[in-house]
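Data's thin. Show one?
=====
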Amino acid sequence: MARNQEPETRNQEPAARAAAIDFLFDLHRFSQGLLTSLRPITAQALHTAGQQLFDELGKDDPFTMPPERVLQFTRQRENRLKDVPDEIHAQIKASLEDGLDAGESIDKLSDRIRAEFNDIGRARGRTIAMTETSAAYGHAREDAMNQAGVQYKQWLTSGNDNVRPAHEEANGQVVGVDEPFSVGGEELRYPGDPDGSAGNVINCHCVSIAVAGPGEEE
């Protein structure tokens, strides 16, 4: 009888391990926490960037973006982040499985989660926050230019030593406000454009500014 039950016991092991990992790391809670923490950052970046553009143009009226458009932008960004918690969870899961194989206690397994977050979660979270802020910043400035009736925009880098070659090459490029920049073989509406490839937008510190025409800053 015991011999007949052996395969069943083996089949139950993966389910038991998965249940243990889910108990130690609540993926749904982590996903919701990540998105919730980013929402105020995105909303603030949208307002600040748009107002900054208005200030640069000397406009007295405050910049406003309708709440429904803020919500639409936020939802679009969250949809692009939907796989991030799974990726982080997969890395943490691998470490937890090692701990389970070693028969570690709950305390030690919990320590593993904290260590993984220190090595992966925090660094990844910082990159995500910077990238999301850049996307919101570029989007709001583009919106503000349209509200202000700007005709041309110019791509500018941060001037830092770590500017990627494609962005350095695009530095100073002037296009119509409704036209995309050509950056590294891609068409980007603004720095941080979410339609761009990861290599072209992650950690981008470039900015688009309003200009009167080619070679003429506002």
